[in-house]
Structure prediction request, 346 residues.
Amino acid sequence: MILGLETSCDETSAAVLSGEGEILGHVILSQDIHRVWGGVVPELAARAHLAVLDDVVDAALAEAGATLSDLDALAVTAGPGLIGALLVGVSWAKAVSFALDRPLVDVHHMEGHLFAPRLEDPDAEPPFVALLVSGGHTLLLDVRAWGDYRLLGRTRDDAAGEAFDKVAKLLGLPYPGGPEIERLARDGDPARYRFPRPMLRGNQQPESSDYFDFSFSGLKTAVSIRVAELESAGQLDAERAHVAAGFQAAVVDTLVSKTLRATAFAGVDRVLLGGGVSANRRLKTEMSERLGPAGRVLCASPRLSLDNGAMIARAGLFHLSAGRVAPPELGADAALAFPGLRERTS
Ligand code: KG4
Ligand code: ZN
Prediction:
C-alpha cells in the first residue's frame, strides 16, 4: 500500500492505494477560508494544512482499514505550488518515511494530474496528447510513454484556470471561479459577445511556437473592457450570464483548437484532459465532438480532476516501479521542473 499526500495549494488530501493502483481510502478537504478573500492566501493555506493534515491522513487510513505501519511507501507533492503549503506535506512525509523506514517518492503536481484518469480507466495509458489545465499551469504534451513528455505548448502568461478565476472576479462571482462561470454560462448565449481567441490564427505554422502556445491575459482584458461598458450602462446584471458564456466559449475553442493541432502533429487520436479546468463539461463535450468518433477523450471524474492525493499516489507508484525514490535531503520546490519534460525540438 502507498499513501499519497497533496498540500500544494488549497486542498489537503491523503489517499491510500493498493500496489495495483486501486483507491482504498481517500479524503479531500477544501479550505473554505479563501472564499472570504476572493483567492488563495498562501500563509493561511499553509496554516490550514498544518492544522488538519494528521486528521486527513487518519481518516484516509481508517477508510482503507489500515494503519501507518501497514504502508509500504509514501508519495508527496514536492512542487510546484505555494512554498509554505508544500513544506507542510513534504516535512510530514519525510518524518514519517524516516520513522517507519519506508521509501518516499517526490511527485510533480502536474504529473499527478496526468495520472488522475488512470485511477478510473485502465485505458488511460500513453500514447496520447495531454492538455493539462489548472489554476497555475496550461501545458500541451505529446506523451509517448509515462516519464517521456514532449512539450508542444504552454501558456505565455495566465493559466486557463487563472483566467476563469480572474474573469469570475470581474463578474462579481466567488472563488474558485471556474465552476461559478460554468454554472452561470448555462443560462447565457455564447454567441452574444464574441471574445478573441488568443494566439489562434489560420496562418500560423507548426514550426513556430505560437502554433501550440496559449495566452489568456488579452482575453481577460477584453472581458474587463466589456464588463466596464456594461456596468456603466447599468446592464451588467442582465448580461452577466451572456458574458460568462462568451468567455467560456472563447477559452474552450482555443484549448480545443490547439489540442487538435497537437493530435494531428503527433499522429495520435486520443486526448487526455487533466487539471481542475478539465472538470468543465463544455470543454469535455467540445473536445470529444471535434475529435470525432475515431478519437477518444480520457478524463477523470470531477472529484479526481481537482487536486487530490490519489493522483499523487498513482504517479508515485509509477516512479517506485521505475526504482526512483526521493533523497533524504528532499525539499519543497515552488517552481519544480516537470520530470522527463523535453522541448519539441529535442
Ligand atoms: O488543478 P486544480 O484543482 O488546482 C491547481 O493545481 O491549480 O485547478 C484549479 C483551477 C481553478 O482555477 C478553478 O477555477 C478551475 O481549476 N476549475 C474550473 C472548473 N472547476 C475548477 N474551471 C472551469 N470549469 C470548471 N468546472
Ligand atoms: Zn492541480
